[in-house]
Amino acid sequence: MASCILAIDQGTTSSRAILFDRHGQVHGVAQEAFPQSFPRDGWVEHDPEAIWQSVHRTCRQVLADASLQAGDVVAVGLTNQRETTLVWERDSGRPVYPAIVWQDRRTASLCQTLKEQGHDARIRERTGLLIDPYFSATKLAWLLDSIDGLRERAERGELAFGTIDSFLLWRLTGGRVHATDATNASRTALFNIHTQQWDDDLLALFDIPRALLPEVRDCSADFGSVDPTVLGAPIPIAGVAGDQQAALVGQACFSPGMAKSTYGTGCFMVLNTGDTPAVSRNQLLTTVAYRLEGKTTYAMEGSIFVAGAAIQWLRDGLGLLREAADSETLARAARAEHGVYLVPAFTGLGAPHWDPGARGAILGLTRDTGIGEIVAAGLQSVCYQTRDLQACMSADIATTGDTLRVDGGMVGNDWMMQFLADMLGVTVERPHVLETTALGAAYLAGLQVGWYQGLDDIARLWHGERRFQPTMPEAQRERLYRGWLDAVARVKSGEAG
Ligand code: ADP
User: Fold this and answer.
1) CA-to-CA distance for 351 and 355, rounded, in angstroms?
2) pLDDT tens digits for 195-248?
3) pLDDT for 173-193, tens place per residue?
4) For a substitution probing ligand 1, which of 9, 265, 379 has the most ligand atoms within 8 Å of its CB?
5) Residue 271 within any structural domain of the chain
6) Which of 410, 420, 435 to mutate to test the pocket of ligand 1 (most atoms within 8 A of CB)?
7) pTM over 0.90, yes/no
8) How far, in Å, from the CA of 380 to the mean position of ligand 1?
9) At 173, which CATH number?
10) Does residue 61 lie within any of the structural domains?
């Protein structure tokens, strides 16, 4: 292989290192899971050292497997689980506390207080986000308030805050770079997405010393160079983006109206809205899609809490499946209009229903309902929830497109992809390279080092593996979707989100 880019994809449950060539083809993958820690109800932590070790090992492994030296790598691109919050000592690089993971709910009561004090509108207007424990700001505030001496040390400039990208940049560069990119910054609730600066009012509101914060750079930029002690030779770090934004880039959704949906444990749908930071009336998020040469492109984002997790539950909770892929065979054999709805509201309902008190249900059972119908309903629930998000997005902005690009572990299920196309009434496109997150990071690095002259060059590299066209008659589609909305109405708790 002439040369390659090394993409680091630091995810919630595992770290991956992937080599890409100039055409966006994969030339090697190394992956390592690391432990999850749940010290209390609602708390989720990661050991930063375990994360760093897993990244370090997978990078070395993927190079060794491909018989490459660090000197053969043109650049590093980095993508990461977003919002997860860390503070470390500038002197030693040692974290002062475990990483508080995006899923962690320990700051729920602080968020409730902020809402009651009426800060919602200001935060939404400046950051595009809602007040929620999910985002980094309250996690960082919790650290400063809960750990003895931390605030004083922060004020003295001894400490650094970062999301996982910043921490990895620090470690990769041997402590020379304290930076983040605009997409990761846009998930902290401290970053003003209009001015593209850390927001002084928000820093005051959350009581965060400015001395803690990383410098915010474009997604394709000079992020320093990998210290030679790490992989044996210096390599420029040239691209950084949060995982969902990297996937948007990997799927080449560069025009307003283009959208991608990633179907893993949960689902994240991201719609490019161009220069416009479109505001949602349905509590979807406004976020930075990417920032290149100082120019910001925005996106609207919606998520589904339970997507693949519904299939995991059918497999592990109910024992209806041996493995997730068996869901396809069972669903194919199910009756076409079986009338069964599975509402996987295990942890409440998200957009547009927003009901944290709702709980799941299986409705419409008859004497001839079998395993196949229940499994089909599980797969269909993911499609109906995508339709819910699509409805929000098209109500919020006019320019939703007529295709959806998909990736993630579930999209190997052809039966589900066909139902998704039918339910949305749009073409569902599955790409050839499914490693879209890592690919996006590689593309961003490739832009910086001159592999690509612009986004058009990257868009030309996107190849569809299969397109699913909607074939379901309109009346049937609407009847099925109305059935879903009725089922959802039955599980609501009446508690507002
Ligand atoms: P994550 O990155 O969130 O860990 P992945 O993208 O690896 O998730 O996708 C794994 C999820 O996809 C699991 O929840 C699994 O149940 C589901 N899944 C995998 N294969 C299939 C399939 N063929 N049909 C339906 N669901 C599947």
Assistant:
1) 9
2) 999 999 999 999 999 999 999 999 999 999 999 999 999 999 999 999 999 999
3) 999 999 999 999 999 999 999
4) 265
5) no
6) 410
7) yes
8) 14
9) 3.30.420.40
10) yes
Question: 104 lies in a domain?
Answer: yes
Of ligand 1's listed atoms, the one at least distance from the Cα of 312 is: 16
- Give a yes or no: residue 136 inside a domain: yes
pLDDT digits (tens, 9 = 90+) for 296-338: 999 999 989 889 999 999 999 999 999 999 999 999 999 988 9
| Ligand 1 atom 14, closest CA | 308
Distance 375 CA to ligand 1 centre (A): 14
- What is the CA(310)–ligand 1 centre distance, in A? 10
The number of domains in the chain is: 1
pLDDT at 2: 58
Here the tokens at position 389 are 């998000």
As for ligand 1, residues whose beta carbon falls within 6 Å of it are 13, 264-265, 308-309, 311-312, 324-325, 327-328, 408-410, 412-413
Q: What distance in angstroms lies between residue 52's CA and the mean position of ligand 1's atoms?
A: 25
Range of the domain at 203: 4-243
